[in-house]
C-alpha cells in the first residue's frame, strides 16, 4: 500500500467503522446481559452519539491548534521591520 495516497477520507472511514464496531460490541454486551430491545437500542444510539461528539470535539481542538501553529510560522517569516503590522 502506498502511504502517500492515504487521504483524510481514508482516515474518516476508518474512524467511522471503528466507532460503529465499538457501539455494536457494547450493544451485544447489553443483549447478553438480558436487557430488553428498547434499552439495547437506546444504549447503542447513546454510545454512538458520544463517540460522534468526542470525534467532533477532538477535530475542532486539533484544527484550532494547527491554525495557531501555522499563524505563528507566518509571523516568524515576516521581516522584523514589518512585525508591528501583525499586532
Pick out the low-confidence regions: none
Main β sheet profile: none
Structural class: mainly alpha
Number of strands: 0
Number of helices: 2
Q: Measured on Cα atoms, how large is the radius of gyration?
A: 22 Å
First and last CA, distance: 46 Å
Mean pLDDT: 80
Helix content: over 70%
What order do the SSEs take from the amino end to the carboxyl end, as H and E?
A: HH
Q: Indicate the overall shape.
A: elongated
Number of domains: 1
Share of β-strand residues: under 5%
Task: Describe the protein.
With 87 residues, the protein is an all-alpha fold. It has one domain (9-79). Helix content is 76%, strand content 0%. It contains two helices and no strands. Helix 1 runs antiparallel to helix 2 (37-77). The radius of gyration is 22 Å and the shape is elongated. The protein starts with 7 loop residues before the first helix and ends in a 10-residue tail after the last helix. The model has no long low-confidence stretch (mean pLDDT 80).
Write a compact overview of the structure shown.
This protein is mainly α. It has one domain.
Topology diagram in text:
Layout: H1 8-32, H2 37-77
Q: Key features?
A:
single chain; 87 residues; mainly alpha; 2 helices; 76% helix
Amino acid at each position: 500500500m502506498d502511504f502517500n495516497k492515504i487521504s483524510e477520507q481514508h482516515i474518516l472511514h476508518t474512524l467511522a467503522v471503528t466507532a460503529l464496531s465499538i457501539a455494536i460490541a457494547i450493544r451485544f454486551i447489553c443483549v447478553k446481559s438480558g436487557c430488553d430491545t428498547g434499552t439495547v437500542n437506546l444504549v447503542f444510539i447513546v454510545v454512538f452519539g458520544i463517540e460522534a461528539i468526542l470525534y467532533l470535539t477532538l477535530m475542532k481542538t486539533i484544527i484550532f491548534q494547527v491554525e495557531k501553529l501555522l499563524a505563528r510560522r507566518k509571523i516568524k517569516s515576516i521581516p522584523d521591520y514589518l512585525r508591528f503590522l501583525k499586532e
